[in-house]
Amino acid sequence: MVDVASSLAEARGALLSVQYAAVLLDLHLGDGDGLSLLPQVRALREPPIVIVLTARDQVTDRIRGLDAGADDYLIKPYDPAELLARLRAVERRRSAGSSPVLHLGTLEIDLAQDRVRKDGNPVVLTQKEWALLRVMATRPERIHTRENLAAALYGFGDEADSNTLEVFISRLRRKLGKSHIQTLRGLGYRLSTSAGDEE
């Protein structure tokens, strides 16, 4: 099935109602920059492959798209055969390189089952705590900006005050152990794979 959305609003609505295998994301949508959609896509329970399509051919634009969470980048016009080859390549990388279970000391995060265990015991997380943890656990050791985490946490169009993200980070630290989620001042947060299990 192929759906076409000509605006960010349409794309957000489609992502909330359908589980896609891949998203071809044009940076020039009718109501804004397509990159602003990436944090929400990455926060989905089963994030699709994302290939950014754009006429922009500047290296800085490609870097910006990849750093925002895109799996690949194609400059328009492109050959459909190349697009299919890139989709297959991303799928091979995902299949070969990623385990849905992340082990961090005595902490086990199972992304496929939406389950966390600490010392073998289940850890209960709210939906928003899961949204936040999923973004960080999908790309551990990566620095996630406050803006990207807030966008993943509050979904499509919700707004939050400046302290709300810190409240959810604090709750996760309490449940998972303080050292697993690190603050990098002025940059954001990251889920550390080398941290201990400090309470």
From TrEMBL:
Top-level taxon: Bacteria
Domain OmpR/PhoB-type: from-to ranges: 99-193
Cellular compartments per GO CC: cytosol; protein-DNA complex
GO biological process, alphabetically ordered: regulation of DNA-templated transcription
Sites bearing 4-aspartylphosphate, chain numbering: 26
CDD domains listed in its UniProt record: trans_reg_C (cd00383)
Domain Response regulatory: 1-91
DNA-binding region listed in the record: 99-193
GO MF annotation: an example: phosphorelay response regulator activity
Pfam family, one: Trans_reg_C
InterPro entries: CheY-like_superfamily (IPR011006), OmpR/PhoB-type_DNA-bd (IPR001867), Sig_transdc_resp-reg_receiver (IPR001789), WalR-like (IPR039420), WH-like_DNA-bd_sf (IPR036388)
Keyword list, A-Z: DNA-binding, Phosphoprotein
Listed name of the protein: Transcriptional regulatory protein BasR
Organism, scientific name: Variovorax paradoxus
Top-level taxonomy: Bacteria, Pseudomonadati, Pseudomonadota, Betaproteobacteria, Burkholderiales
